[in-house]
Amino acid sequence: MDELLRNIKELLEDAEVAAGEIDERFPKEDYDPSSWSGGNFDDAYELGLDHGEVTGELQTLKRVIAIIEARR
Fold first, then answer.
1. CA pair distance 27, 1, nearest whole angstrom
2. Other CB atoms within 10 A of residue 8 CB
3. CA torsion, ordered 37, 26, 29, 33, to nearest 10 deg
4. DSSP letters along the chain, please?
5. Neighbours of 54 (CB within 10 A)
6. Nearest CA among 15, 25, 3, 28 for reference residue 63
7. ∠ Cα 25 30 36 (to 5°)
8. Degrees (nearest 5) of the Cα angle 68, 19, 21?
9. Number of domains in the chain
10. What is the pTM of this model?
11. What is the pLDDT of residue 55?
């Protein structure tokens, strides 16, 4: 169980790095996906999907860690 928890925490760290990279490229205070994508709606949509996947991964991993730690 300890090894599983370590592996999941490593995945969480990787996801946090990915989220940080997205945040650096696209600051929240300047939120304008249309501008970031050069006005191409399809590219703006893809940017949103990428961010959503990383955010969902972060939330899921945090929940799994909390469940495992609660059962230890």
1. 38
2. 16
3. 20
4. -HHHHHHHHHHHHHHHHHHHHHHHHS-GGG--HHHHTTT-HHHHHHHHHHHHHHHHHHHHHHHHHHHHHHT-
5. 20
6. 15
7. 55
8. 145
9. 1
10. 0.69
11. 87
Give residue-wise pLDDT tens across range 11-69: 999 999 998 888 887 766 676 666 766 777 776 677 777 778 888 999 999 999 999 99
Contact between 46 and 38 under an 8 Å Cβ cutoff? The reply is no
Tokens read off for 4? 């599983």
Show the domain range for 8.
2-70
At 9, phi and psi to the nearest 5? -65, -35
